Amino acid sequence: MLDCSNTRYGTCPCGGRYTERSVTINMTSSGRDVVLPDVPQARCPVCGSSVYLLAHLELIEAVFHARTVEPRD
Ligand SMILES: [Zn+2]
After folding, report:
1. The dihedral of CA 63, 65, 69, 73: what is its sign?
2. Could you tell me the pLDDT band of residue 57, with boundaries at 50, 70 and 90?
3. What is the CATH number of the domain that holds 19?
4. Percent of the chain scoring above 90 in pLDDT
5. Which domain holds residue 52?
């Protein structure tokens, strides 16, 4: 039987089945603290590796590379 809840993350190279959970990502971008709550993340219970959906990786990168537009003097 195909478990659709896991297929979107693919299968871990170690053969484990990813389990999805929500995590809060804290990072610093352009000197500011940025918090992304409730980001879906899949974690392999066998080897402990974590993966994100491509869309969320792009979101994380977009935030990380965002430039704050503030006047300098
Ligand atoms: Zn694994």
Report:
1. positive
2. confident
3. 3.10.20
4. 27
5. 4-65
The CA 43 to ligand 1 mean position distance, Å, reads: 8
Report the DSSP beta bridge partners of residue 21.
41
CA dihedral in degrees (16, 12, 6, 23; nearest 10)?
Answer: 100
Instruction: Give distance in angstroms: CA of 73 to centre of ligand 1.
Output: 50
Residue 49 has pLDDT above 90, yes or no: yes
- Asked whether residue 60 carries a pLDDT value surpassing 90, the answer given is no
Domain count, the chain: 1
Does some domain include residue 73? no
